[in-house]
TrEMBL record:
It is a multi-pass membrane protein. It comes from the Eukaryota. GO terms for molecular function: transmembrane transporter activity. It is found in: Membrane. InterPro entries: MFS_trans_sf. The keyword Translocase does not apply. The keyword Membrane applies. Its main location: membrane. The lineage of its organism: Eukaryota, Fungi, Dikarya, Ascomycota, Pezizomycotina. This is Major facilitator superfamily domain-containing protein. The chain crosses the membrane at residues 24-42, 62-83, 153-171, 192-213, 265-284. GO terms for cellular component: plasma membrane. It comes from Microdochium trichocladiopsis.
């Protein structure tokens, strides 16, 4: 846990609160690396008494599920956080309205999860739905990077449905995989590991996304609004732009926000593609005859 905290602080502060070359940022990265390395050494030396026994991690389906869950969480949670911000900053709607406009992603995610659960129960195989998640999430994420201030409702609704449906197909599958391949005595550890990695992916890449977004927005504002202090706009929040800028400046600021946010979406695209490592290497095993519990991670 201390290693994760150090890493999150370094990613959160780097390039925003302090420059990347600042001693505090470097120290946090170094400390995080040392603590992670120490944890790994302890796990190897502890054998079966380790927090996460190495025999579990070496299982092909377990590490594939972990990579898949980490990458999917990193990609999907980035969209869950930044899409409402895009609606507020670029389209100028309220926080409530942005939440309503985000419903296509959320509802398609729920629908995808229900469909995947029913189909896996019927046919017995979870691997195809992990592959479907990779395909849909990667395509949807790529389409999201094309958003512009003038995009039509049909496009932003449709793209969100694709992005939401992919993880809907994929959320349950890593948990089902580890429950299928591990002996009952190791199932609790395996499922906890997958859930942790999914949450870790989301937390880490929200911090990465925040750094990318803030730095790119500052660059765009400096380049196109030289008379305006970027810090003032950053501190004012997305919903207050019209109150601090004149109409001409507002148009430029909206374009800057759009560029910064779609650049952040590229981070999610990369992690969506990274889910292929897990979905392509997972073992194809049937859950039929297994005591498998399906639950959202």
């Amino acid at each position: 846990m201390p290693a994760i905290i150090c890493l999150l602080l370094a990613l959160q502060w780097g390039g925003v609160t302090y420059p990347w070359s600042d001693g505090r940022i470097i120290a946090l990265f170094v400390l995080s690396g040392v603590l992670i390395a120490g944890f790994i050494v302890v796990q190897f030396r502890s054998g079966d008494n380790a927090t996460v026994p190495i025999r579990i991690i070496r299982n092909r389906s377990v590490w594939a599920s972990g990579v898949f869950a980490f990458s999917m969480g990193a990609s999907f949670f980035t969209f869950i956080y930044y899409v409402p911000l895009w609606f507020q900053a670029v389209q100028g709607v309220s926080a409530v309205e942005s939440g309503i406009r985000n419903l296509p992603m959320v509802l398609s995610n729920v629908l995808g999860s229900i469909l995947a659960g029913a189909l896996v129960t019927t046919f017995g195989y979870y691997a195809p739905f992990m592959i479907a998640c990779t395909v849909l999430l990667s395509i949807g994420a790529g389409l999201m990077t094309t958003w512009t201030p003038g995009i039509g409702a049909g496009a932003w609704i449709g793209y969100q449905i694709i992005v939401g449906m992919g993880p809907g197909f994929g959320f349950q599958q890593p948990l089902m995989a580890v429950q299928t391949v591990l002996p009952m005595s190791d199932v609790a550890t395996g499922t906890a590991l997958v859930v942790f990695l999914q949450s870790l992916g989301g937390a880490l890449f929200l911090a990465v996304g925040q750094t990318v977004f803030t730095n790119r927005l500052a660059e765009e504002l400096v380049a196109h609004l030289p008379g305006v202090n970027p810090s003032v706009i950053l501190m004012s929040g997305a919903t207050n732009l019209q109150h601090i800028l004149d109409p001409t400046q507002l148009v430029v600021a909206i374009e800057a926000y759009n560029t910064a946010l779609t650049t952040t979406f590229y981070v999610a695209v990369g992690m969506a593609i990274a889910t292929l490592i897990g979905s392509a290497t997972i073992e194809w095993k049937s859950v039929k005859g297994k005591n498998v519990e399906m639950a959202m991670a």
